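[job 4417] fold queue: 2 targets
>>> target A
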Amino acid sequence: MTRPVTAGVDGSEESLAALAWAARQAVRGGVPLRVVHAWRFRPGEAPGAGDRETQERWVRETVTGAAASVTSRHRGLEVTTDVLEGDPVATLLTAAAEARTLVLGSRGHGAVVGFLLGSVGQQVIAEAARPVVLVRAGGDRPADEVAGHEIVVGQQGEPEDSAGVLRFAFEAAAARGATVRAVRAWTLPPLFSYSPASLKLLDDAGGPEPYEHKALAEALEPWRDRFPDVPVVEHVEMGSAGQVLLSVAGRAQLMVVGRRARRSAVGARIGSVAHGVLHHAGCPVAVVPHA
């Protein structure tokens, strides 16, 4: 079964921007588009007030109208719609598990700050088994339609740690004819954290910065081989990962970051890097779960 690109819509401007992005993604990948709405009957709330039938009809008409807006622009794109009743987080997580990518809209704070994550979006990102892309409304032209803009991806740890993130970035770049900018940020750890083995690795590499360049090159090697036509820029910079990624966000049509969900007493939380990028990047952001 071919996994669709799935967009969550609720009729808002942000969700319609996410739907438009998802439709372009589906066309590039030659896959179907699925449009979903997570709905719960809310007595006394407009539209329909206490009338369940009227409220459900309004929801279905909203979803159908949203789908029609993309089919009119993308002739031949296979589009399905679903109004799924239930808890929004659970419903969207199920939809994400069945998709190749789940795309959601997010309300922006303005030109400087990127995304305002509600509790639903935050939980879905933290728990989804598949990549989730956040798209905000606004701007004269979608970032992925601006010539020269790159796919920026954050690489951390060992090659196997970032395999899923790099795969997503290279596949996106290949579909768009774009350049991948692979970013690896590094900082000097406290002296007491160096072990004899780590000191030897640094010494063999010629110092901390050459070591980081070598680590990034090794992580990229299998993806360069698999996608030989995708241009790659290797970007190694000292600083926090979130800050370094945001410093190049202005040239990105899409930013790709990984996440490891962290559990707390109040539920799952995404890592600080993904959290910072989601709140401050102006372009769409893909959050890819680590294996």
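>>> target B
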Amino acid sequence: MSTAGTMLRGWRTRRRRSQMDLALEANVSTRHLSFVETGKAHASRALLIDLATRLEVPLRERNALLLAAGYAPSYPESVLDDLSAVREALHHLVTGHEPYPALVVDRRGDVVLTNGAVTTLLAGLDPAFLAPPVNIYRLALHPGALAPRIRNRAQWSGHLLHRLDRLVDLTGDPRLVALRAEVGPWVPDDRTVPVLDRAAQLMLPLHLEHPELGELRFYSTITHFGAAFDVTLDELSIETFVPADAATREALGSAQPTAVPSSMPMP
């Protein structure tokens, strides 16, 4: 079992910070920080929280660090259904984005909430891929799921793997490490980026071939809760897709509502 010192040293190394640099920033001696990391000194709760904040340790991992040091966790982990005001806000965000797709996912990419436009995009997919928990990485990268519909598959799969790699580096979450290992073999070896037009150089589009609506082009944006002090909220992100051209706006604006799979988490 990892000690608080070894965990702290691991986060410092992951963030590529030297002991001297971190100690100066936290206003402690390098000697004391070294003793904390080696277990020769016991850090106070306040110092551990301060160091974890400076190292941008995610809230879930901050709780684990505190527990390893013998302290109670500082950050609650709520069930989203119990956070009525937050769920209502998320409801308005995703439904207000219709007729364009929007969804809420946790840090592992498991879908928490979607709007009806998402089900339109997924029409005709094997229901096995929509069984809970629906995971956006498995859904987008598996050759039996959405991947064959993605026209710029090499670009988009490279983008998703880059996102996963960043999350693994940011969080050190072993579940994300396992997910990265799982989806990696599904990605084509050739992920070279072709010459892009001016718009695509600024923002990577998602180019889909829909069986009923034809070609669809989107840009995506990802939003996180600012200053979250709850583990659940800290790990949520809202991904919205906006049309990249007039044809996509018209196709989705005139699309008939699609039956919602019972497994998809709707507002």
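[job 4417] complete. Note on B: The longest strand covers residues 214-224.
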